[in-house]
What we know:
Distance between the termini of chain B: 55 Å
CATH class of chain B: Mainly Alpha
Strand content of chain C: under 5%
CATH architecture of the largest domain in chain C: Up-down Bundle
Structural class of chain B: mainly alpha
Order of helices and strands of chain B: HHH
Oligomer: heterotrimer
Largest sheet of chain B: none
Number of helices of chain B: 3
Number of helices of chain C: 6
Radius of gyration of chain C: 21 Å
Radius of gyration of chain B: 17 Å
Distance between the termini of chain C: 74 Å
Largest interface: B-C, 73 and 82 residues
Helix content of chain C: over 70%
Amino acid sequence: MHDTVTVEYLRWIVLLPLLGAVLNGVTGAAIQKALGKRAISVIACAPVVLAFGLAVRAFVQLRALAPESRLLLDRLFTWMSVGGLHVDIAFQADPLSAVMVLVVTGVGGLIHIYSIGYMHDEKSYWRYFGFLNLFTFAMLTLVLADNLLLMFVGWEGVGLCSYALIGFWYTDWDKASAGSKAFIVNRVGDFGFMLGTFLLFWILSGLGHPTLAFREIGAQAHLLAGQTFAGMDAVTLITLLMFVGACGKSAQIPLYVWLPDAMAGPTPVSALIHAATMVTAGVYMIGRMNFLYSMAPTTLAVVAFGGALTALFAATIGLAQNDIKRVLAYSTISQLGYMFLAMGVGAYAAGIFHLMTHAFFKACLFLGSGSVIHGMHGEQDMRRMGGLRRWMPYTYWTFLISTVAIAGIPPTSGFFSKDEILWKAFSSAHGGVVLWAMGFTGAGLTAFYMFRQVFMTFHGECRADHHTQEHIHESPAVMTYPLVALAVLALVGGFVGVPAALGGANEFEQWLAPVFGHGHAAAHAGHHVEWSEYLLMGLSVAIAVTGILVARAMYLTKSLSPDSFAELAHGKPYRVVYNKYYVDELYEAVFVNGTLWLTRVAAWFDQHVIDGIVNGAAQVTTMVSWLNGLFDNYVIDGLVNGIATVVNFVGGRVRRLQTGSINAYLYVVVIAVVGVMIARLF
Amino acid sequence: MIGLPHYLVVSLIVFLLGLYCVLTRRNAIGILMGVELILNSANINYIAFARYSSGGYDGQVFAVFVIMLAAAEATIGLAIVLGIYQTFQTIDVEATETLRG
Amino acid sequence: MSEFSFFPLVFYLLAAVTVVSAAGVAFSRNVVYSAFSLMGTLMGAAGLFLLLAADFVAVVQVLIYVGGILVLMLFAVMLTVRIADVRISNRSLGRLPAAVVIAVTGAVMGRAIVGTTWHQTPLNAPVPTTYGIGDAFLSRFVLPFELASMVLLAALIGAVALSRKELKGNGS
C-alpha cells in the first residue's frame, strides 16, 4: 500500500472543530451574552456536522480507489526536522481511520445536538461547548494523524479535554478531583506510550530509518524482527509499553479506576468521551500498529488475557451497582475488555467492528440515562426509579433496543460484533478455550446486569417520591432525535459485518483488510470446521437469554429475590463486589499514601539535611567572617595604627629640633662650621 | 718683631669674643654686635695678609667690601630687630618662639 | 742709637684696646655698655689698620663703621630699651657649651696660626693706598664693585620697606 492520493480537505475535518473551540472558548462568554445560547450551539455543532460531511466524502473517495491504494494524504507543513527526525503535520485517511472518523464525527455530532437540550440550563454553556469542540479536535487529530508524534498530540489532547469536561462543575470538590484522577491515571499510561515511541524511534533510526510516520514504519517493520533492547525482544518491549498507554486511555486493568469516577461529568460527556471516542483510542492505536503487534506474540497474549480479565472483572462489579451511570461505566470497561481481547487474538477487524457497534449502543444508553436523569430532575439512583416507561416512551424504547444490542441478541449489531470476537477468541492461533470461556461468562453477566438496569428503571412501580413523580417528563426533541438515530444504528449497524457462516460477506472485515492484511494471517491460522462456529453462536445467544430471564425473574416478576443472592456467604462476596473489590482503597493506600509518605520524607530531608547544610554553611561563613574581622581589627588595624604611632613618636622627637630659639639655630650653624673646619684640617 | 702671627692672634681673640657674643647673648642687638666683631676680625686678617704678602692691595679692597656688606647687613638686621620689637614688645630672642615645633 | 722702635709698643697698645673693648662687648651686661665698647673695638681696629699701612681702609672704617653702623646700633638700642624697664635681661644662655665650642675653635685655630710657618715678604714703606684701591675698584674689581652697589641698593630698599610697615602701624 504505497500509493497515496494527495488531498486538501482532510485538514478541515480536524480544523473546523478547532475553529469552533477557539471561537467558543475565547469569545464564548460575550457571544452568549449578546446573541444567546442558540448562537453558541450553532458555532459548536456546525463544525462537527460539516466534519462529518467531509468524512463521508473521504469515505466515498476511498471506496472509489483500488483496495491496495486506499490512502489519502493531506500534508500541511513540516513540523520539525531535527537531526534524523522529520515530522510533518499531515493527516491520512485509510480504511481504518475512515471508520474512526465517521464514528467520531457521526456519533459526536449527535451528542453535540443532544447537549443543546441537556445543558440548556447551564450558565457556562459556552465553556462546555468550547471544550466539547476542543475534544473533538483532539480526537480527530489522534485518529487522522499520519505519524506517532502527531497522534500523541491528539492522545494528550483528549486526556486534557477529558479532565476539563469531567471536572466541568469544578466548584464541587468531588467532581473536580474526579477530573484530576482521570488525568493522573491517564498520565501513567501516557508515560508508557511515550517510552514505547522513544524505543521504536531509537531502534528504527539505529537501523537507518528514522521515521515516525505510520506508513513508513509499516514498510520497515520487518527490520525490527529480532532486534533486542536491554536483553529483551525490542518489538515485544515496544508493544508492551504502548499497551500500557492503551490501558490508561481505554480503562483496562490496572488503570481503569478513573472511569467510574468520571461519571461526575455531564452525561453527554460520558457518552462521547467514555463510551464512543476517547476510550477507544487505545484500541485504535493497537489497530494502527497491528504490524508490530503481530510480531510480538507475548504482547498479544498479555493484551488478550488482560482484555478478557477486564471484561469479566468489570462485569462482576456492574452486577451490584445502583447508580444508573455507574452501571454503564463498568459496562464500558467490560466492553473495552472485549475489544482488547479481539486485538489480542489477532482479530483486529473484529475489535474495530465491536468498537463501532459499541459506540452506537453505548452512546445511546448513556444519552438515554441522561434523558432519565433529566426527566427525574437529577436523580441517579436506580432504587428510586421505576416504571418510567409510562412517562418517557422514546427514552424507554431506544434504551431497550440498545440494551438488547449490548446483550448480544441477534439481529442487533452487538450480536454480530461480540459473537465475532468470541468466535475468534476460540478459534484463533493466539486464542484458546480459556479466553473464550471468560468472554462467554462475561457476556452472560452483561446481559443480566443490563436488563436489571432496564427493569429497575423503566418497569414496575415508581419508587420516587411524590414530588419528583409529578414532574417526570419526556425529554425535548433535540434530545430524543439523537436517541432514535443511535438506536437505529444499534439495530442495523451490524449488517456490514455479517460473517460468512451466516451467509454474509463481512464487508467490514474486507474493508479493513488492506490495513490489517498482515495481522489477519495470524488470525486465520487455526480455521476450524464451520459447525463449531454455529455451536458457539448458539451458546452466546443462550447465555444472553439466560441472563435476561434471570434478571426478569429478580426484578420484574420478583420470583427470585436479589437479596438472597446478596446475603450468600454472609453477604461478603456481595460487599466485595459492591465496593469494587476495594481497588480504589488499595490504590489510595499504596500509591497515594505512598507518594504522600515519600513527600514527607523528602520534606524532612529538605528541612533537616539540606537546610542543615545550608545553615551550617551560613554559620561557617559567619564564623570565618568573625575571624576575618578579628584579623582585620587587630592585625591590619594594628599595623596601620602602629605606623601612625611610630610616625607620631618620631615626629614628636624630631619636632624638638624646632625650638624657635634663634640661639639654638646659631649654635647649630657655628658647630657645623667648626665641625667642617676641623674635619678639613685633619 | 711684630709679624703676621701677632695680627692673626689679635684677630683670633676678637673672633672668639664675637663668637661668644653670638652664642650667648639674649639681646638681639647683642648678637648683631657679635657678628660685627667677627667681621672686624676678618677685616684685620685681610689687611694683615695684604701687608705681609706680595698681593698688592687685594686684601684692602676686600676689606672695603666687607665693610660695605657689613653696613648693609647691619641695616637690614636692625630693621628686623625693630620689627620684632614692634611685634613682641621685646628683643629677647627667647621670646620669639612662635615657630617652636 | 739702639733700634728702639715704638712700633711694637703701639701695636700692643692698640691690640689691647681692641681686645679689651671686645671683651667689654662680650661680657657686659648692659647692652648700652656693649654698644660703646664696640666703638672702642672699632677704633682699635682702625688703629691696627693704620699700623698695617692701610690708611684708606682705616678711614673708611672709622667713617662707616663707627660713624654709620655704630650710630645705627645705638639708635636701635635706644629705641628698644624700655625706659621703665631698667633691668634689661641680658642673661646669657648656656655659657658652658659656648665655652666648649670656643675653646675647641680657639685651640684649633690657634694651633693653626702658631704651627704654620708663614711666608712673610719684607715690608715696604707705607704709601698712600687710595689711588691703588680706587684703581683696583675700577679695573680688577669692577664687577664686585657694581654688585656691591646693587647690594647696597637692595639693602636700602629693604630697610625702607621694613621700616614702612613699622611706621604705619601694626598689620597694615
